[in-house]
Design goal:
- Pfam families: TetR_C_6, TetR_N.
- This protein has 2 domains: about 1-65, Tetracycline Repressor, domain 2 (Orthogonal Bundle); about 70-165, no CATH class.
- The protein has 9 helices and no strands.
- It has helices at about 5-20, 25-35, 35-45, 45-65, 70-75, 85-100, 105-125, 125-145, 150-165.
- It is elongated, with a radius of gyration of 17 Å.
Amino acid sequence: MRSSAPDILVAVWQVIATRGIDAVSFRSVAAAADVSVGRVQHHFPTRTGLIRAAARHMIDSASEAFPETDARTLLTHPFSGAEGRRSGTAVYYAFVAASATDPEIRRTLRDARAGVSEALAREVGKSAATRLLALAEGLTLHIHLGMLTSAAAQTLMGEALDACRRE
C-alpha cells in the first residue's frame, strides 16, 4: 500500500500511461496507488490539482535524476532505453498535450525547459541550445513512434552537438 503524496502522483502517471489522461480520476488513481479515494482527496482536493501536481512531480523527479550536467546527457537522457520506457514518454507527452489548455501545466513544462536551455546555453550558446532542444524533442518523438532507434537518435544528436560546438 502506497499512501504518501509522491506515491499517489506516481499512480497518476501509471493511470496516464495505461489509460490516458482522461482516465485520471480519484477512483482510478486510488486503485493504482492501492489507497482509498479519501486518501487521494486528502492530498489533492481537485482532479485538476492532482494532474498539475503529477506534472510538477515528473519534472522535479527528472531534475533530481539528472542534475545539471553536460550538454550531451541533458539532451540525450530521454533516448537511453527509450524503446523500453515508452510509458514515461507517453506520460510526458500527455502533459504536453494538456498544456495546450492548462496554463499551469504549460508554465511548469516551459520553466523546466527554460532551465535546461540555460544549462545548455552555458556550454553551446543560446541559439544552439534552442536548436538542440528542439531537435531532442523531435528525436524523442520519433523514437516513441518507432521511426528511429535510440542508438540512431544518439548518433544524430551527437553530430548536431559537435556541429554546434564548432560554430
